[in-house]
């Protein structure tokens, strides 16, 4: 349940930033959630490969709950990096506003 609240909050933040910069809101909300799960997945993959490489396979006996708690910071880190990069790139682009009254006054 806590994971669903976290995923909802992450998606909401990406939805807000996409709305602010006039981008596709639902696509970026979904990409924010996907970035969280990708970071989570790659952390698990990295831990598994590292454990086999050093010969310490005791990580495989750890409960899924503990491994899940260990992966949350890495998922949040990848999501934060993705959010930071989006905000940095989108803030460089100037938003052009068209005012219909200006066009009508010139006629």
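^ structure tokens above, recovered residues below v
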């Amino acid at each position: 349940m806590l994971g669903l609240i976290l995923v909802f909050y992450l998606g909401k933040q990406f939805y807000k930033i996409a709305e602010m910069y006039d981008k596709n809101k639902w696509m970026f909300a979904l990409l924010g959630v996907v970035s969280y799960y990708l970071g989570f997945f790659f952390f698990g993959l990295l831990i598994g490969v590292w454990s086999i490489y050093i010969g310490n396979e005791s990580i495989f006996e750890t409960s899924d709950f503990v491994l899940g708690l260990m992966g949350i910071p890495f998922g949040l880190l990848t999501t934060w990096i993705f959010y930071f990069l989006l905000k940095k790139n989108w803030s460089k682009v100037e938003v052009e506003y068209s005012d219909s009254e200006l066009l009508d006054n010139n006629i």
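The chain has one domain: 2-89.
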